[in-house]
Automatic annotation (TrEMBL), chains A, B:
It comes from the Bacteria. InterPro entries: RuBisCO, RuBisCO_lsu_C, RuBisCO_lsu_C_sf, RuBisCO_lsu_N_sf. This is Transcriptional regulator. One of its GO terms (molecular function) is magnesium ion binding.
Length: 372, 372
């Protein structure tokens, strides 16, 4: 028998009988997808068929049960999308089911080497000790490359450790990808020369299927300090592929665009910690952007902290990564965020800085507030 | 000014004032993602910023409004993932928003050539007139290539027009992708030689990021009759890339694995017709698999029929595609489905046929029932 990994699902159900029936359905649906009475005896039934390992009433008061189902490493077939398919392929379409947690196995860990860098290396790149990291974004779409590079320069001069493309910046005619990449790497380099800082420029390489890997490698050649990818748009295996590529050496920052439905509904998708924490670490993201509590998105403080904890909790020996909450962050929320997150965080502040008269000064005030 | 495309969102809101505020937030969030007071005058404000075109109370009784927002073709940047990002990138993370419909523009139609084949060509391949198509799936994972090829043979001999891999079949050690592909193409060819039929074998090419396109091209070389891809796993641009590739000539069938959260919640994601209809046609899928009503998934009859209608409704001149409802389909539901869907459908029947003593006979009974 091969080793098995496990998935714990929240199963909406009125009673234990209904929950058990639904859990056994998941075990069937996610593996053999045929009626129970025709599952072939022997290898298929004993190895491939999902196995209900435990079932208990949901301890947090939600109207349902937690069902843990184990799956065979043999079913993964060396294929991360197939791993996701086993975790939640067809069952994602059934209301009242949610992936709560994932228990690893040797097969998953052989496939997913995890982040190449993680939080410790990102801090080393930024030249800081165990203090928070700072990131900002050049925007909006529609500005010229010169204007965007000017923003990148000022963010760097103001002390941001990472300056990224807005996730909507791709290859628009107002600022072509390759032109912007070169101009921003150069602008950040100039600011570093002035300040003695070590700011990295991080282009958004999310793009057409045949361009993502190419743009990521171009970013490396030109001297960028990382790349940003939105896995829900680019495909869930792209980050893993890049993180495992021995010729690719940049940190990877993930962006949550288009992934919202996977987490916002209490009735489907994933728990916040499983999606933004465990899955993104397995993919190999070094930092994970997600919407902060109290901003313009609806995540609660507890959901956000569950993501932050999942970024560093023991997970098969994979490196701890950086939670990067953003979305409506302002300077006067720093105290509250420091209290909530502590030091293992990357503050992503964008629009609020652009509202200030002097961008460089605004960045410096933010830097001071975060490191006070 | 560039042409504009539009997106109609359902916006949960208590009154028109709240709805308008939320709609203006979407217009900002999906384009410039900075506070309204710092949006640069001129090109950014006039061209790039989303524009609220209309707002009306939801006519179907849901507690909210329909907001139509237009976006500039300039923002797409020749990039389908960026188009999706504009449609619903960050706003996917806000509860109480749903993409209802998409209004096309020249920019989208330049980017999305749509399905290469569509329903008429799939029927021609199958050698039938304006009658329903039939598809089945070889499974489960864990069977040997020989056993799976035997099933493919029998499905073909029984009259199924398309025989596909189960979406969980990838490159497991029990049946390697290339070995299964060759064996199944051969087995279906043998059955066709016996029956005079024109059954196509359709391998699942969803897989690692660097393998999908390669496996699709391998399928073409070996003589498969189509490929199946789950876009939510493989990435939303892969089908479009293949459909637009002049050297790739196979029909593409999409599978809904891992996409459930995008449709099942009333509070987030897409309407069924926008997701499985419009988006899949824009991607270039020739047939779209989705869970049928009354099976083991929760889609309603009306949701399913809205998908079927969206597969053939006028959409920028793109070809009509085939709705392929499946998931718990049995022989005794044929009458009900014929009444609901008419002839423009591909019946996807899998597990129910495997429960019968003679697979070939079961397929023939299904064929007869569908064409009676």
């Amino acid at each position: 028998m091969a080793p098995r990994f496990s998935v714990t699902y929240f199963v909406r159900a009125a009673d234990a009988g209904e929950a058990k029936a639904r859990a056994l359905d998941i075990a069937l649906e996610q593996t053999v997808e045929i009626p129970r009475d025709v599952v072939p005896k022997g290898y298929v039934e004993e190895e491939i068929l999902g196995r209900l390992e435990s079932l208990e009433k949901s301890p947090d008061g939600r109207p349902g049960f937690l069902a843990t189902i184990s799956y065979s490493d043999d079913d993964i077939g060396g294929d991360f999308p197939q791993f996701l398919n086993i975790v939640f392929g067809n069952s994602s379409i059934k209301p009242g089911l949610k992936v709560e947690d994932i228990g690893l196995s040797p097969g998953i860990l052989a496939l997913c080497k995890g982040p190449r860098y993680g939080i410790a290396s990102l801090r080393a790149r930024a030249g800081i000790g165990e203090s928070p990291l700072l990131m900002s974004a050049i925007k909006p779409v529609g500005l010229s490359t010169k204007e965007l590079a000017g923003l990148a320069h000022d963010f760097a001069l103001g002390g941001m450790h990472f300056v990224k493309d807005d996730h909507g910046l791709v290859d628009q005619k107002t600022s072509r990808f390759d032109e912007r990449l070169r101009a921003c790497v150069e602008a950040v380099g100039e600011a570093n020369a002035k300040s003695g800082g070590k700011t990295s420029f991080v282009p958004n390489v999310t793009g057409p299927a045949n361009a993502v890997i190419e743009r990521a490698k171009q970013a490396q050649e030109v001297g960028a300090g990382g790349v940003m990818i939105a896995p829900a748009l680019a495909g869930y295996d792209v980050i893993r592929t890049l993180a495992a590529d021995p010729d690719f050496t940049l940190p990877i920052i993930s962006h949550p665009a288009f992934s919202g439905a996977n987490v916002v509904s209490p009735d489907c998708g994933f728990s916040h910690r499983a999606f933004f924490g465990a899955l993104h670490r397995l993919m190999g993201a070094d930092a994970v952007i997600y919407p902060n509590f109290g901003g313009r998105f609806g995540f609660t403080r507890e959901e956000c902290l569950s993501i932050a904890r999942a970024c560093s909790a023991e997970l098969g020996g994979l490196k701890a990564i950086v939670p990067a909450p953003g979305g409506g962050m302002t300077l006067n929320r720093v105290a509250e965020m420091r209290e909530a997150y502590g030091n293992d965080i990357m503050y992503l502040v964008g629009g609020a800085l652009l509202q200030e008269t002097s961008l460089v000064e605004a960045c410096r005030r933010l830097f001071a507030a975060v490191h006070a």
